[in-house]
């Protein structure tokens, strides 16, 4: 199977989890990295609906003018992704995240939330990130907001880790017993393996 950003499934259920899942597997080899350039990060951000077309256009122009900055921001994004993976993998497995992981998360969250605004309207409150000018940090800021939102909702039992590929996903099933990131991918592969082992055992 040819892997590209176009074929990448968005099975996480929210932006932060889809971002974590921009490698094909967290269990075993080979690992396929979907985000090899800053342009890949922008393309994924557009696919996931994180950034609007005008934002993407501006960032592409800036990345072309400042490629070294774009390269640094890509490395930062990958580091944040891996820290988010450690954080939510711990939660999915009923563990308390390591202090260093939590500290890294809080440090990046404070950067994102410099632009946090609360707007009040009739019987409701809008909490969002707002800045007058877009920056290279825009994708990560919105990803961190997504991670913060799921943590504050408190439904930790809905945060799952796929036992086959290690992807993180939000279980939105009615009974909260979804096991696989995607039943048609990891679920069907696991069933095929189970069938193979049963046949081999009985042969």
Describe what this molecule looks like in 3D.
The protein has 203 residues and is mainly alpha-helical. It has one domain (15-202): Jann2411-like fold. The chain is 52% helix and 9% strand. The chain contains seven helices and four strands; from the N terminus they run αααααββαββα. It has helices spanning 15-20, 38-48, 53-65, 67-92, 99-112, 138-153, 183-202; strands at residues 116-121, 124-129, 159-161, 168-170. The strands form two sheets. Strands 1-2 form a two-stranded antiparallel sheet. The chain has a two-stranded antiparallel ribbon with strand order 3-4. β3 (159-161) and β4 form a beta hairpin. α2 packs antiparallel against α3, α3 packs across α4 and α4 (67-92) packs across α5. The two termini are 30 Å apart.
Summarize the structure.
The chain has 7 helices and 4 strands; from the N terminus they run αααααββαββα. The chain has helices at 15-20, 38-48, 53-65, 67-92, 99-112, 138-153, 183-202, and strands at residues 116-121, 124-129, 159-161, 168-170. It has a two-stranded antiparallel ribbon with strand order 1-2. It has a two-stranded antiparallel ribbon with strand order 3-4.
